[in-house]
Amino acid sequence: MWAAAFCALALLVLLHIVDLGAGTLDALRSALWSGLAALLFAVLYPPRVTVGHDWLAVRGLLRERRVHTHLLTRISRREGIAQRVVLRDATGRRVEIDPITLAANPLIWHEIDRGARRSRESGLLRTGTPVLDGLRSRMDDIETERARAVFEASGLR
Q: What whole-number distance in Å separates Cα of residue 147 and Cα of residue 52?
């Protein structure tokens, strides 16, 4: 969030300095530059992911989306520039989460995995097993590398 605010503020200051140097700065242009900086902040603002027992919430700039992890019906992967894991639950709610967030926060991944296992056991989770298995493999690889780095840093092999 701080990086998004810094980039937006830097753009605002830079645009004001350039406009002031050209002698064309007025109230309308200042409002336009402020709006442009606010738009940049909105685009760069990272979602906040929180997790609890049987729920996962992703809070953006304006709203929060929440799913029940023990009621998951579908797990899919949205490809593209910004890859996302899409989770849907039985109540029709949907969240998108960045796989990098899962890799950086093992507790979030653990809650999703635990909820998905419960959903599969109860027969709710019908689609998404290959996506879940791929994520599980990736998380296991990351944890193995972290453990290896800890052992090497402590002098153990």
A: 26
